[in-house]
Amino acid sequence: MKHFDEAATRAPLGFKKLVPALRAAFSAEARVPPRHVHSIEAAGADKGTVLIMPAWSDAGFLGIKTINIFPGNGARGLPGLHATYVLYDAHTGVPLAMMDGNEITARRTAAASALGASFLAREDARRLLLLGTGRIARMLPAAHASVRPIDEVAVWNHRPEGAEALAAQLRTEGWNARAATDLEAAVRHADIVSCATLASAPLVRGEWLAPGSHLDLIGSFTPAMREADVQCFVGARTFIDTNEALQKSGDLLDAIAAGTLRAQEVQGTLAELCRGQRPGRTGSEERTVFKAVGSALEDLAAATLVWQHAASEVSG
């Protein structure tokens, strides 16, 4: 079984290749069972969550990701997410590779965010607001710039020093980036508001969102987590990555309970957008929302890209 460390996993997953790979994966056929979710609570430790996410495709690959999420890790100076990914031959079950699951998770999540924006954000969207400063948030400018002309990035975090640090890092990478201290003003100014946090209480208010803006909610993935208040869905066209979001997203469940969104009002899934079965943005003034809880299909698409890149290097 081949081993891909963080650098080897990252190398083939540039967003100019990964975003189209996700689009192709959502357009094709694959089997993606519901994820297994288990709560973990050890004596003297904060409660965590373990997800087990399998998927397999007609391309002949089977993948299983195990991902551990411990929100309290930030206070320990540790990432809140740790993951491993194993790729198998779907015909024989033979293990092919162990890959860095953290890198796959972060890059496919950012790529899915950009894929959603490619259908839902205005063509001229250039001002990106990031909520969060973790691994995924750091990748979002490059991901969104692969589909939209991003030239201004603002960063907000509940810890202002974290926002300052990420903005400084982004500037060293060539971005026009700044830390935002006034969240309301930053949201009102943004063309794309991308939330990549582990928040359990709403951060973005619907009244702040500008006409024509796109709200991207990719951080929360359980009913107890939420990044947007229920008013964010009023008057907006809402899309989801998969139907699982209607059971797993605290943002959607809260809005449905409050009556600001009905399940049947959700406009479509990422697969339906990719297959041309649902229209994306239909006007420059409409507001759009994309809610993602993640899909094992995205992990499989990324892992397949890594494996095929390695195979081409050997054969080439």
Description:
This protein is of the alpha/beta class and 316 residues long. The protein has two domains: 2-104 and 297-315, ornithine cyclodeaminase, domain 1 (2-Layer Sandwich); 110-295, NAD(P)-binding Rossmann-like Domain (Rossmann fold, 3-Layer(aba) Sandwich), CATH 3.40.50.720. 34% of the residues lie in helices and 24% in strands. It is built from ten helices and 15 strands. It has an eight-stranded parallel β-sheet, sandwiched between helices. Strands 1, 2, 3, 4, 5, 6 and 7 form a seven-stranded mixed β-sheet that branches. A hairpin with a 3-residue loop joins strand 4 and strand 5 (61-69). Helix 3 (101-120) crosses helix 10. The mean pLDDT is 94.
**Largest sheet strand order:** 10-9-8-11-12-15-13-14
Strand content: 15-25%
In N-to-C order, the SSE pattern is: EHHEEEEEEHEHEHEHEEEHHEHEH
Shape: globular
Low-confidence stretches: none
Query: What integer value in Å does the Rg equal?
Result: 19 Å
Individual helix count:
10
In round numbers, the mean pLDDT is 94
**Extended strand count:** 15
What's the CATH architecture of the largest domain? Answer: 3-Layer(aba) Sandwich
Task: Return the structural class.
Answer: alpha/beta
For the terminal residues, how far apart are their CA atoms?
A: 21 Å
CATH topology label of the largest domain? Rossmann fold
Largest sheet: 8 strands, parallel
Given this structure, which CATH class of the largest domain is correct?
Answer: Alpha Beta
Helix content: 25-40%
Number of separate domains: 2
